[in-house]
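Interim report, section 4.2 (structural modelling).
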Amino acid sequence: MANADVLDILSDTLTSANRGSANKDEIIREKKKGPKKSIRRPEGMKREVWSLINQDDRESVPIVPTDTKSGGNSYARWIKHSSMTVRPWQWTPFTNSARGPNDTFVLYHWQHKLDPNEPAPEYPFAKFNKHVDVPTYTDTEYEQYLQDKDWSRVETDVLFDLCRQFELKFLIIHDRWNNILYPDRSVEDLKERYYTICTSLEYARTKRQTDKYNFDAAHERRRKEQLNKLLSRTKAEEEEELYLMNELKRIESERKERERIISHDVQKFVQQQDPHVMITATTPTQRTTPSSSRRSSINQEYLQRLNSSTNRTPTLQRTTTFEPPVGIKFPEFKRPGVFLRSQRMILPASIPNKKAVVIDQVLKQCQLERNPMACEEVVEEFNDLRSDIVLLFDLKNALNSAEYELQTSLHRLKSENGPLSSGPTSAQPLSSGSTSSTDNTKTFDFLLTQPSTPLDSVTSPRLSDSFEPSNNVRSSTSIYITMKHLVNFVLLLCIAHASYGRYLADWSQTTDEALIEEALKKSLKSISIQQNVDLSQTDVADIACETHFENGLHIKLTFSLEKQKWECALYKSSVEVIGIENVKCEQVEQENPPSETQDEQQEPAKDNEVEADDEAQIDAASQQNHDNEEEHDDEADVQQQSNTNTEQETENDDEKDVASDNNEQRIPDEENTNNETKNNNTEDNQESNNGDTNNNE
Amino acid sequence: VYTSNQYDLTRHFQIEKNRSFFKIINKVSMSSITIEPHTPAVFVKPILYGNTAKHFGTKRDSDGHTHKWTLYVRSFYQEDLSTYISRVQFRLHETYTNNIRVVTHAPFEIEESGWGEFETQITLYFVDPNEKPVIFYHHLKLFSTEPDVVTGKEALVNEFYDELVFHEPSEQLARLLICSKANPSPVDEKEYALQKSETLAKIKTARQRVKNEIQELTERLRITQENIKRIRQRSVDQICVPGTFIGLLNEAIE
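Predicted structure of the assembly:
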C-alpha cells in the first residue's frame, strides 16, 4: 500500500521521460508493460478514494467474488469515462411477453433513456416464465397402456388437466381436486398416478426404460407421516428425545472405550499366552470400529484366536524373534559398557504409578522384597514376574469392563424385550438351567443386580482381588437405570422379588440327574481340597438335592460320606456358563460326635443359622398344607445344621404345637450335647428316611 | 552404523583424495570388522557392597556421634578389585567434611562415625578410561531392632549382592578381567547361595500363582465375551422380528 502511494506520488511528477538516470529494470518493465496499462486516477478524485476503487490484482485477494470485467476495474473505468453527470432515466411503458401474445396489459417503469434507433429490449423477467411439459395421450394409448383399476378415464383426464393448469404443483392440484365427484385422493395418490402414466407413456413411445419418473409412493407416505409425527411432538417428548440422544452418545463412547480396553488387553494376553501365534498387523486397527455388528465380529475374531491358540498343537512354526510378553519392557543393555546387574531390574518410568503400586502389593503378598538379590536368573525371573503381574492387572480390568458390558447389554435386551413383549421372542435359553424360574424378566433382574462372578472360597484369596476397581467407566450406571420405562419396570420387579422371593425359602426337590451329579462332583472336589483327601463318587451314599431359585439357583446337596453327613450349598448362576460353583460344604450331624471342637464348630454356625431359619420355619410351618410328605421335605431341608425339634413336630403333626415348639427352639442353642446327640440320632433316622423317600420319588 | 560407514566412504572419496586413501583403507578395514557377526563378549563380576555399623555404647559428646560405620565395596570372590577398578568414589552426606571421598586402592572402603542414616552414592571408575563409571546408591543403615546389635555387641551388616556386567570390554580390560579370579569365601558363598535359591524359589511360586490367575481370568473373560456376543445377537434378532416400522421410528428419532 505504501509502495503504491509512493509510486503514485512519484509517477505524477516523474515520468520515464523526466527521469535522468536510466534504470535498466525500469526500462525493461516499461517495455513489457505496454498492453496492460494501469488506469490513471482522474483529476477530480482524491488519491485515497481512487485507491479504494482501483483494484490492483497484485495487492490483495478478495474473499467475495468480484466483477472481473476489464481486470476488475470496470467501475473505475466507468467512473473515468463518465462525464460526471447523471444518466437520464425515462418513464416508459412496457409489456410482459410472458403473459402471452394476446396480452394488452401495459405497465410503466423507469428505464435508462434508450437510443431511439435501438429496439426496445425484452422485459428481462420474461425469461423466467418456464412451462412444464405435461404429456398428452391419445385414446388408443390410454386403452393400451394406461388403464388402472382405481382410476377412471374421466378422473385421469381431470388430473392431467389440473396438472397442466397448475404446472404440476401437486399441492394445489390436490387442493383443487374435486372430492365430491371423484373419490378422495391424497397428494401421493395423484402423484403416483401421474408418474406411472408418464413412465408408461415414455416406455410406450420410445421403448426404453427411463428413470426419469421415479416415484415411490409408499416411501413418500411413510416419510410424510414420519414428518408429521416429528412436527407434532410435545415439548416434553422433544426434551426427552434430546436427553436420550445425549445419553446414547455418551454410552456409545463409553462402550467404545470399554471395547478398546477389552480388545487391547485380550490382544496383549493372546500375545503373552501363545508365542507361537503370529499376531497379524490388523489388530491395532480393530479398535476403532463404531458399529455393533462389526464389534461383535471383532469379538468373534478374538475368540477365534483364543480358541485356536489353545487348540493348536505345539508343532507350530516358531517365530524366530519372540518378543517378550507385553507387560513391561525392562531396560536392556546391548551397547558396550559396564553395567550393574541390578540396573536391569529397575522399573521403567513408563509404568504408571497405579501399576507400580499394584506390583508392590502383589510382591508383598508373595513375601518378596522389592529388589531381590541381583544374580542373572533372579533378575530374569523377577522381571518376568513383574511383567506377568502387570498383565494380570490389565486382564482384570478387561474382565471388569467386559462384565459391565454384559450387564448393560442385558439391560438393553430387557428394555427391548419389555416394550416389544411378543410371544415368540422369549429369552428362555438363558435360564434353561433353573428349574423353578418362570419369569424371563426375573433372570434379567438377577443379572442386573449381581455380577456373574463365581464364588470360590476354596482357593486362597486371589492376588487379583487386591486390585482396586479402576474402571471409571462405570459412573453412568445410575443414570442409565433412571430411564423412565426401565425404572418403573425394574422397581416393580424388585419390590415383588424382595417381598416374596426372600421369605419363601422355597426349597423344592429336584431329581435332575445331571444337576445332582455335577453338584456332587463339585462338592467332593471342594471337600477333598479341604481335607487333602481324594474322594471318589462311589463313597457317597444317600444323596438328596434341593433347589431354590433366588438370584440364581441355590442348590443344597446332602449326602453321607464315610459315615458322615455332609451338607453342601452350591450356587449356579443363571447365565449358565460358569457352571455350578461350590459355596460351602459342611459336615452335618455326626452320628458319633467325636470331639468337642467339632461340635463347637457347629454351634456358632448354628447360632447364625437359627436366626435366619426361624422366620423361614415359621413361614414354612404356617404354610403347612395337609400333605405330610411335603412338610417333611420342606422342614427337613430348611434346618441346615440346627438341632431343632421340628422333626418331632412333623412327627406329631400338630399345628398348635408349632408355635410353642418354635419358641422352645429359640432358647436352644445353649443346649448341651446330650440333647444334641439325641436329636442327632433322631434326625439321622429322619434323614435316612427322607433319603429313602427322596430316592423313591 | 553400516550405512553411515558407506556414506563416509563416498564422501571421503570425493573431497579429500590424497589423505583419504589412507582413511578409506581404515574405514574399509573397520567396516569389514563390523560385518562379521560375533557373539558379544560378556564378563560378569559379582560384587558385594554395603556397610557395617557398630554402636559405641555411649553418645559421644563432642559431635553427637553414636555409631562407627564402614562403607565398602568388595569382590564376592575375594579378588583384588583394583585390577580393573581404578578408584571408587564415595559420596557421603553434606555435613561430613570432604563428603566426596575417593579411594584409589584396595580395600575400597570408608570408615567413619556418625549419628544418622543417609543415602550414599558410590561410583566405580574403571581402569579403562573409555568405560563410563558405574553409579549406584546405598542407604547407610545404622539402626536395627535386633537385641545384639542394640547393645553394641554385634555389628550390623547391611550388604547387597550385585553383579558387574561388562559388555564387550576393550582388549586390555578383557585381559585384566580374565586373569583376576580367586576363590570365594565359604561364609559368603554359602549365605548368598542360600539367599539366591530361596529368592528364586519364591519368585517361581509367585509366577506360578500369577500364571494360574491369568489363566482363570482369561477363561472368564472369554466366557463373558461370548455371552456379550450372544446377547447382542439376540437383541439384533429381536429388533428385526417385530418389523421395520419400529426400527424406522428409532432411526427417525435419531
